[in-house]
Amino acid sequence: MTEQTIVIIGSGIAGLSAAEAARKTNPDIRIIILSENPHLPYHRPRLPGVIMDPESVEKIRLHDEAWYENLDLDLRRGVSVKGVRADDHAVDLADGTSLSYDKLILATGSRSFMPPMKGNDLEGVFTLWTLDDALAISNYIQGARTAIVIGGGLLGLETAYALKQRGLETTILERGSALLARQLDERSSAMFQEQVERVGVQVLKNAATEEILGHPETGRVRAVRLEDGRELAADLIIVSTGVRARLEVMDGVDVAIDRCFVVNNKMETTIPDVYAAGDCALMEGIWYGLWPVSMREGKIAGTNAAGGDETCHIPTPPYLVNTMETRIASAGDIAPKDPQVSSQIHFDETQLTYDRRNFLGDKLVGYILLGDTTPFSMLSRELQQA
To answer: What is the DSSP code (8-state) at residue 268?
Structure first.
């Protein structure tokens, strides 16, 4: 019998979950993981911790080399994919070679979005999406005193906290009118901002960046100019304004795309024998960009590529945040407009704790926990049963 081969493009959590599930489903199938990253795959959400402590690199690795050997996974690091020839069931690599596949799993993930603003290429301007990014930022900090983080989302907040812990005077520029507007309601967002400022990080809301300014002599960043004309000095700038799915490996292939590769609940794309999972996949019109979701999608893609038959169901995932010396858990309808939804709200302005539970009749439809997240597990189960 001819040996079957699964090729997985990408070594993030979706790709590794796919590989592990494929191996469990078929102990004999050949599994090749193509990773452009030279490092062993790592826990991406922990990258801000590397900024705080560059010696923590080994702690964020997902697995050691023995794990790949024990599962007989052919992990190829530092490999760049040029493109896919779907009709030929082949993956072309940048070095001129190609690989044949029986099943292909696209786990290409996403990349940081850098807005096309003037000055975004100056020395001292970074995004944080890879381990090399984190190490470069950590190294650059040694010559900096002030930092600005453009973007007040989850990654921007964690990065700002890391910079503050390294001793930099740090400011977050949030384009919107509230921090974590998708995870918090108006009152809890204001309380969270107070906590951010308690740990020494400044926040400017409704702050749209127009241009990044540099020193003419050195080419290094020196300030940010806002659309309202204000200039804010900075020795280091982190741009954290969202991500974009990486789709370029399928350039020229007639595959359905809606900002991501469109997949069904078996994680199949519109191309036979090609699956997608994680940040690069849009399943039945929904995209989360969350680690546990990528893990689940990868597992289903790997199982089915190896001959299984599973469907992917994603319960309403919670947002879990642990930064700025506080915790947040929220899920479901957090700030309902339906007058039939009632809310139970308890908060403590001194301790900066907030507990909101929203009910439709006697059914929980959403919750927000700030500061004290002890009820999270109970509320999560109750929400899934509703």
So the answer is: B
What are 206-250's pLDDT values in tens digits? 999 999 999 988 989 999 999 999 999 999 999 999 999 999 999
Name residue, tokens 């915790």: 327
Domains of the chain: residue spans and CATH: 5-110+245-305 (3.50.50.60), 125-239 (3.50.50.60), 319-385 (3.30.390.30)
Which DSSP symbol is given to 2? P
Radius of gyration over alpha carbons of the chain, in Å? 22
Contact 49, 60 (CB under 8 A): yes
Digit-coded pLDDT (tens) for 328-381: 999 999 988 889 999 999 999 999 999 999 999 999 999 999 999 999 999 999
Instruction: State residue 117's pLDDT score.
Output: 93
Measure the CA dihedral 9/62/260/91, to 10°: 0
Query: How confident is the model at residue 385, as a pLDDT?
Result: 80
List the structure tokens of 321: 């945040």
